[in-house]
Amino acid sequence: MLARIIITLVIVLVVAFGGFYAWAWHSEIPAEQPHAASSFDPAIVAKGAKLAAVGSCVVCHSTAGSPSYAGGYPVKTPFGTIYGTNITPDPEIGIGAWSAVAFRRAMREGVDRRGRHLYPAFPYDHFTHATDSDLDAVYAYLMTRAPVRQETPPPDVVFPLNIRLFAAGWKLLFLHHGGHVADTSQTPEWNRGAYLAETFGHCGACHTPRNALGAEKRGEQYAGGTAEGWTAPALNAASPAPVAWTPEAAFNYLRHGFDRRHGHVAGPMRPVVDDLARADEGDVRAIATYIASLNGVSTADNQGKAAAAVQAAQSRELPIHKGETTGSAPPAGNDGAAIFAGACATCHHQGGRFPVSRPVELGLSSIVNGGSPRNLLQIVLDGIHPAPNERGHIMPGFSGTLTDEQIAALADYVRSHFTDKPKWDDTEATLNAIRQNKNFDKNSGKNS
Amino acid sequence: MTVVLNINSQRHEVDADPATPLLYVLRNDLKLNGAKFGCGLGQCGACTVLVEREPVFSCLTPIAVLEGRRVRTLEGLGTADKPGPLQAAFIKEQAAQCGYCIPGMILRAQALLEKNASPTQAQIRDHMQPNLCRCGTHMRILRAIDRAAKDMKTASATPPAPTETAR
Amino acid sequence: MTKAFMPPLSRRALLAGGGAVIVSFALTRHGLAQDAAPAKTKLPGDLSKAPMLDSWIGIDAQGGITVFTGKAELGQGIKTALLQCAAEELKVAPDTITLVTADTARTPNEGYTAGSHSMQDSGVAIRCAAAQVRAIMMTLAAAKLGVSEPDLTARDGAISTKNGRSARYAELVSGEALHVAAQPMSPLTPPKELKVIGEEMPRVDIPGKLTGKPMYVQDLRPDGMLHARVLRPSNYGARLAYFSTDAVRAMPGVVDIVRDGSFIAVVAQGEFQAINAVNVLAQNAHWSDGPQLPEQRTIHETLMALPSQDSTILDKGDAAQSGVKRLKATYTRPYQAHASIGPSCAVALWQDDRLTVWTHSQGVYPLRDSIAKMLALPPEQIHCIHAEGSGCYGHNAADDVAGDAALIAKAMPGKPIRVQWMREDEHGWEPFGPAMQTQVEAAVDTEGKLIAWQFEVWSNTHSMRPGGPGNLLAGQYLAQPFQPDAPKPIPQPEGGGDRNAIPIYAIPNARVVSHFTPDMPIRVSALRALGAYHNIFTTESFMDEMADAAGADPVAFRLAHLQDPRARDVVTRAAKEFGWNDKEKAPAGWGRGFAFARYKNLAAYCAVALDLHVDRSSGIISLGRVVAAVDSGQAVNPDGIRNQIEGAIVQSASWTTVEEVTFDRERITSRDWSSYPILRFPALPQSVAVHVIDRPEQPFLGTGEAGQGPAAAAIANAFARATGTRMRQLPLSPPRVRSAVAI
Ligand code: FES
Ligand code: FES
Questions:
Q1: Residues of chain A numbered 327-356 and touching chain B (CB < 8 Å)
Q2: SS3 per residue for C294-307
Q3: Across the interface, do C339 and B134 touch by the CB < 8 Å criterion?
Q4: Do A325 and B15 touch (CB under 8 A)?
Q5: What are the pLDDT digits (tens) for C159-198?
Q6: Which chain C residues have a beta carbon less than 8 Å from that of A357?
Q7: Residue A262 and residue A360 in contact, taking contact as beta carbons nearer than 8 Å
Q8: Is the ipTM reported for this complex over the cut 0.90?
Q9: Does the predicted TM-score (pTM) go above 0.90?
């Protein structure tokens, strides 16, 4: 009896696996002669350029100091590191031999030209909803870039996930096909924004929490996630921003990397904004409209809170240390206020002289108001740095200047001085975790 | 109030507001000229000194955070008569125009060479990124760092001359 | 008191103290020298301005030699080169000479240290004076030793006979032996016998700078010194409406607040205290609006529409003819900043009715006169002493901060006052290099030769140096404000906005018009190379456009129009060292570029060849190999020349690929290194090689600014080759490159 059950089970499993395998198996799409750049309609190429900018393709498909789209960026996931591939039209290493059909399949199904499954670090769960004509435009754009011969390191993923077929299993569970569905109750601009945010923009990839298998939790869209050791704050009603996002503020932030009621872009969001600066302005406004709608801008409650927050932030005393030059104050090594006055106040004083680097009013920052000190610690450690040769906010990192104790004291001071929120209870633990992560990256020679 | 600082292995008691950035204390209280004011914003590196083994912007380092930590400045690396290896290499390469940025450059380079005795060109450039030079002396600065790395290696490979060991 | 700090010299001190003997000697002699009628024949270099030998060279009773120059060390290595000139002709070791630089009480008035003039003006004067002093020593020695002059040799500060008898300079010189007028002819050492000139002598100032010696005005710390910070207005022309000082006065360390009209400064014991105090003062000060600034987006249209004074500076033949191919293009350059790494600084002391100012101004005498007018003092009561600052590259805020320090010191007698600008003041208030526009048209004939060239340039002034007291920033904000001087063009042949507007190439029909626009909505003055940066960028970009029109190799095309053999040599040398081959296809994304100019058409020749890569997606230009050739005439210190040209190339690469002053309708918005980025290490060229062509028989030619224009044009030309797109609007910054070539 037991044997029969086992046999049946095995048969079912084999059949199921066979079926799964048959389903999962994708044939190779024949290589094509690389297309001459001139064979593409420049208007389509231009459209593709704008969409590729919304998609921030270049972020994962390039590394610092090497040519755009030549691949190599290490995408760190809980399951290992996957490197962005070379998507220049080099026929052997890049996608030069790919047909438009092969490209569409990769974007929709997560399968490369040869038929291999791609890891979902490549967000085809978003791209799958894009229209054919948009995918073809991005294809035209990529095929007209300069080909670069640069190999991509193989993925470094833990067993058994390094068996690519697992990606197929993942898709079976989490990849939902079908075009984007418009919400007819909303404006065309909102719908345009929703389409771009959900497809090319793949905002949810960071701002939606993920389950144990690394898929976005469908019921918790935009409830906040993590990215590369940073918190990707919630964009829905749980947003920690004291002043709710308006379309205008979201546009400022997404397009220019700064809004005076929210602050400067930092961390893994920075390169995204660099790219959005190259996208179509109307598209970025549309995305901003959509994103701002997520946190329920216009409720009276929200507006009241916002006004109060601004009022509170602006009435705060200038944090210049008025310490006496003589006296018997306690040792000030871990005095967050003294550290702030000497290290931070030069830039972060409010009002006063021309605000040099347009520092954020800390009382309005989501980072200072958020539930976790993680992003504040990240910024204090590493600072904020603009793209090479470009205008952009600079904040120096303090990782060598301050000891861990001092950084924690500073973070706690900033939290208590600039907000009415309770003290973080995990400042030191979070700092330790960030440090460990960085040491790990350093020791394993990974680019972080 | 009094803050105790360890600068170039010397103990200094400084009577100043603990929030005062180290740069002003070095320059005005201790009369050490090496670290320079460039921006006061952590954007240029003219004020770079070493705290323990790390290059830091002294313009944004309140002295309060330095008690019990070792600070090194340009003056601690050598003198005009007895320049340290990086200073000597910068002199050999004539790596200065106005020279205002150079102390910061030397200190930042010192931190690199202490951690990595044979940095590649790319590593040097990357490491030196925070420091600005307006005169365009960069190519010479790179050559000088490269030379210092090589000189330091040959110096540590050759046993010191007997007269020096005798002392 | 640090060593570099010299107390103000009262006349009594000058005449009494033993150590100051040489000073008094030079000072009194110099005073007389200034009065002496100028010699009839033109004397070489700045000997024409100060014709007495003892204005330049003093020898004391101990044999100590002091050389005086009115020029200043700006990081260009001038001290070393001048010492080489003096040592060579005096036949002494350079390190035995004391060099005194720009000081209104001690050195000749050589105007500004600017325009790559120092070697031509001061180098020539010192070399000739030294040679003449040596001749005087020879004559005195011949008398003393009873030998005829041809049998004597000068060496190591002594004159000796063949049989070993000798007399030291100190024994020979007495009384007023050197107080004689210079002669037009000098017995210069022939090129073959040169021992010091032409040597790569290490710079004398570098060891001190690298080991923390007090080398800069920023390092001066006279006893009792106080720190001051000036609160600059909210924007150009704004006036202090109302303010309260209570909060500031209550702050620790604050000594006083000095105010005159809309000029307001805090003085404190400590530097950080002064900085904190000025921040609090800013919160308690309210300003009236100043005039609106023009729209940045359309700044060139705005500037072109301003009334202009037009002059035709070249007109030959019929420049309008069309040839077989005629092209036309417009080029622009934005406002660009000196953006010195060290913000401007000065120390001033008002004591015993004398004002002493330590300054890194490029012109201590003109500064003295401006301050005198601002404070209504006779110039003799003011003593300006040059002390180095960080590199200035022209007229930055050095003079302004000296004016600030003078005003504050005058209000606080007996207290040495140190003022250093904050970064945002330096970036926001310095006088920028002006925005410019050029329009060029040219035609080639059937042979592919240029037959016509028409060039027009629109520019503000390139010099608002002091000048009147209104040229000092503080002067404009006093209760009795001074107006800036009426802007003036700098005439040809050097030119200002039209510097290098006249093509160096042999073109039979050519016309060049200079449109000088006096009104300046943004504060401007001299930035390294003045108009030459943009005019060479234009000319040399357009030469490539014309070469393409003629189907010619850019280097060959230039050579076909160059007659000056030295120009041809420089072009050929740079092309050869680079391995120029326009036929060979560059790798994808790469391009090669070439450019050449003779600075001012009068000074050093410089050619630059380079290659670069353009990343279309990010818009980043990565420079590869850069090779330059330069002819500065007789090379006094070849390494000094290389250092200058290397620096010029890197700085010009920064201007050309990154830099642009930004402003909104109210104020300058590029106020620090994040809003005004410059090139950082990772963006440097892979290599820069400079080849110096030494011409020992030729006069010195100024070099400091020669690289700026050619580097810019070579980048634009390589960019055009790499992308097929010609960019004519500076800078070729990532956002502009992206919009030009992203698709
Ligand atoms: S002065 Fe400290 S970084 Fe510029
Ligand atoms: S040498 Fe002048 S700023 Fe670097």
A1: 327-329, 331-333, 335, 338-339, 341-347, 356
A2: CCHHHHHHHHHHCC
A3: yes
A4: yes
A5: 999 988 999 999 998 878 899 999 999 999 999 999 999 9
A6: 672, 674-675
A7: yes
A8: yes
A9: yes
